[in-house]
Amino acid sequence: MNDTMPAVQAVPHLDLDRYLGQWFEVGRLPLKWEDENATNVTATYTLQDDGNIEVDNRCYDNLGNPSQSLGRAKPVEGEPGQLKVSFLPQFLRWIPFTEGDYWVLKVAEDYSVALVGTPDHENLWLLAREHELSQQVRDEYLAEALAQGFTLDAWITPRQDGRVVSDIELQEDVLKD
């Protein structure tokens, strides 16, 4: 991040109970670990007994095969809009500096749309509860991303047709291998 970029600001209040559940990825900046051609990308957040959040990311890869990545998010104490996320296997999560920042930058009053990013301006996601989002709402949220210093030249809009990778598809894919 250079000194002329505005600082990334997480929302000052986040009702975690309302944020939990399933989200469709409407758009994102490129990620080294996610196929650029992935479709029907979803993220489901589930509160665990220990206060952490299970993160269940699912999609269909460029060949149409189901894919899943499980992680854990921890709320940052005193910073309601900030989470620390790790997708390392459970037995490696003790290693320091293996958690990434996940900041909610804007969320709709009804928790139907959210803009999430990282403070280094490298990662950005536009999430919605429905698989379609009006252009007006997209523009509003992407304007917020621009105002917070994100560059959207490489923005990816995955195909979303409402399909969600099911547990059965994941099990069948494992059996196939």
Task: Give an account of the 3D structure.
- With 177 residues, the protein is α+β, with helices and mostly antiparallel strands.
- 15% of the residues lie in helices and 35% in strands.
- Strands 1-2-3-4-5-6-7-8 form an 8-stranded antiparallel β-barrel.
Features:
eight-stranded antiparallel barrel, alpha+beta, 177 residues, single chain
Chart the SSEs and their pairings:
Layout: H1 16-19, E1 21-28, E2 39-47, E3 53-60, E4 66-76, E5 79-86, E6 100-107, E7 113-117, E8 124-128, H2 135-147, H3 167-176
What count of helical segments does DSSP give? 3
List the secondary-structure elements in sequence, H or E. HEEEEEEEEHH
Instruction: Provide the residue-averaged pLDDT.
Output: 90
Query: Which range does the strand content fall in?
Result: 35-45%
In brief:
The protein is 15% helix and 35% strand. By secondary structure, it is α+β, with helices and mostly antiparallel strands.
